[in-house]
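User: For my dataset I need records formatted as: sequence, then structure tokens, nothing else. Please produce one.
Assistant:
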Amino acid sequence: MERINTTASTFESGEWQPAGDVTIQFSAADRSTLHIEARADATAPWEVVRTVQFYEDPIVKLTQLPWLRLRIENPLEGQVTVWSDT
């Protein structure tokens, strides 16, 4: 389970390898954005597979991807929290 609590203007999680499908929940301050990034191999470049804005549906379901990481843009430095089920 990846969990982030931050008020930083930018934040990048550690990478992880989910064992199956992933559900991510995003609770964010105004103007915050969550970028979900994935890659096929440990040496491949990171690619954004989904972007979630603060006003969108806060729960995202993704099919299994080999590697994931989360990147947050939080220009107003409000509270941002992210959970995942793996």
